[in-house]
């Protein structure tokens, strides 16, 4: 049975199985040396494996994780919940108790290893964060049920759960018959045509329309279709944070990342003045929910679950059909004369840095100075101040940015970098706050073990900055106030930590030291490097400071205003 599952994963292009070895899945792991392409990546804990599989799925199309019943599966749960919310197709393989173990518990009350007591605990829990949750208890059921789980993953672009009793791994199983194929949904042509007519009419009557591109366009591989729609329509566009990097951000008409009150002021004004917001594949959360309340009637929201035009719903129109159909409607049509011109987002003015080389680093200085370094690499931004500051980084290649900006699990990025590095392509560069880094620093060990050349920039301000901002921003307004006691972090020796894991380390407290750190990082290609970015506790990105209000001390304001610097090339 293990060989059947391995063959199917190879068919889907999965070459890395992220896991923490356990007895329940030992039969599957023992099969991997016989595989042509699939290899095990042993992580330090299960949630790291889940984060890695999530990022791998975003890049390669599918990811896979395996673990042991109870303690392993439930440890991975948060990471899989995030993959579910953010539509990342991950297969969760859980080794389950044998039939004999279950009989002994049922008859004699002898709990099997890692049992919570009740039967089917893992199945019931995972049924809430997967699109299919399947248990295989008989060898003859394996081909049909394995295929069923994988097809569900392909169809819905979300995780699936597959539990296989540990005594079945070595049971004989036929080789796969034919290739896996997701069903092609039937198109309701009448409903699609009516929907497209309504949207086309709204576009023709609009004066300031704007397209808002979201993450589902990436999950359903609609990058080319989006580019064609933008070229034909001439619509200016913004993206969500989760959709950042859908297309190279040098494309004509790109205005920036719209993430509600954290967007640049001019971008907020542009989107706020739009009389038609065409949102494609955009998940609406409370970080960006104000636009829905404000513009509900003049918003078109298309997702794979249907299309909403104001208060009118088309529940049977899928995202791909809508995007392709709208593109065809606009083909050969001139841009409506009623559309008011929209200026491109103003580019920041670069100022000399000769006198700033020894300036203390700020978050804004950091991101202004890494834009060239990250070119041709894959940025991974963790939840926190780094997430919102990273929105302005220019991403030059499709897929060059990853953030868990919907589920927002603090600590996602370092584990995700394991999967991103295994997936190949661009080198991962992680921006993570010290709070988030402490959620899973041991993933650094996995990067070292497999020689994965990830750059990890830890924003070290010894405070939970995003929590302070959300709970009590007065700290950033009043120079005499103290941070809330529960947001203060104990000091960590990041040099010793990196050394303990076998990783390189460099400290950057000034602009000069940052440039040197990036030079060193560019030369390291055989493993990870941790850059300790030393920041003041009161430092906060300008885009976040703006959301607090005007009452920021002048000394703090001066650290941000106009402090954009020249960009060194690496």
Task: Describe the fold and architecture.
The chain is an alpha/beta fold and 570 residues long. It folds into three domains: 2-168, Rossmann fold, CATH 3.40.50.970; 189-330, Rossmann fold (3-Layer(aba) Sandwich); 363-560, Thiamin diphosphate (ThDP)-binding fold, Pyr/PP domains (Rossmann fold). It has 25 helices and 19 strands. Helix 16 links the parallel strand 14 (378-381) and strand 15 (401-403). The longest helix has 17 residues, at 189-205. The relative contact order is 0.10.
Distance between the terminal alpha carbons, to the nearest Å? Answer: 49 Å
- SS summary, helix count: 25
CATH superfamily of the largest domain: Thiamin diphosphate (ThDP)-binding fold, Pyr/PP domains
If you average the pLDDT, what whole number results?
90
Give me the CATH fold name of the largest domain. Answer: Rossmann fold
Biggest pleated-sheet summary: 7 strands, mixed
Q: What is the spatial order of strands in the main beta sheet? A: 9-8-7-10-11-12-13
- Beta-strand fraction estimate: 15-25%
DSSP, total strands: 19
Roughly how much helix do the residues carry, as a percent range? Answer: 25-40%
Structural class: alpha/beta
Low-confidence stretches: 348-352, 551-570
As a whole number of angstroms, the C-alpha radius of gyration is 25 Å
CATH class assignment of the largest domain: Alpha Beta
> What overall geometry do the principal axes of the alpha carbons give?
globular
Say what oligomer this is: single chain
What is the CATH architecture descriptor of the largest domain? 3-Layer(aba) Sandwich
> How many distinct folded domains?
3
